[in-house]
Amino acid sequence: MKGKFLLLILAMFLSVGGVAKVASAAQYGPHGPQEIEQTIQEGLRYLASQQYANGSWQNPNGYTGLILAKFAERAHELGQDPFAKSGPHAYQYAQLNINGYNWLVSQMFSSSGGLQINGPAGYTTGIAMTAIASTRKPDRIHFAGGAANGMTYNEILQALVTYSEAAQENS
Fold it and tell me: I need a surface site. Which of 24, 105, 122, 146 has the fewest CB within 10 A?
């Protein structure tokens, strides 16, 4: 069980981080690094402007998880903490991440001995796992309500994996 969990987490990090490395190694074409960086910043500003007051985006759990994964990865690319609002590793989108992750995790419910998230089961649960793993904060504790209240992100990931394993065995 732990071996499957570690392989799953490794696969998620490689899929999220590996894409960035391939893209940075590619030729820029007619656009230079400054133009690409500006486009990334504009895209993040746009996404931030579309976040609802409750912390979600248009399709609450699917889009929210994918967008949060990118905001968390971006913080790490910059050497910043996705949740730090002040200090040497402060991230300008920390409050966005706090609100978004609070929303995402509060949408989880107990199922098959683990946790599932509202929405198409495999799709949204997999995206939620990617988003949580992207924070690289296994000891962060969720206190915003729901079935995962009081759990660390590591415990939440394990519970999502437990649900996913049970769902595969039952199908």
Answer: 24
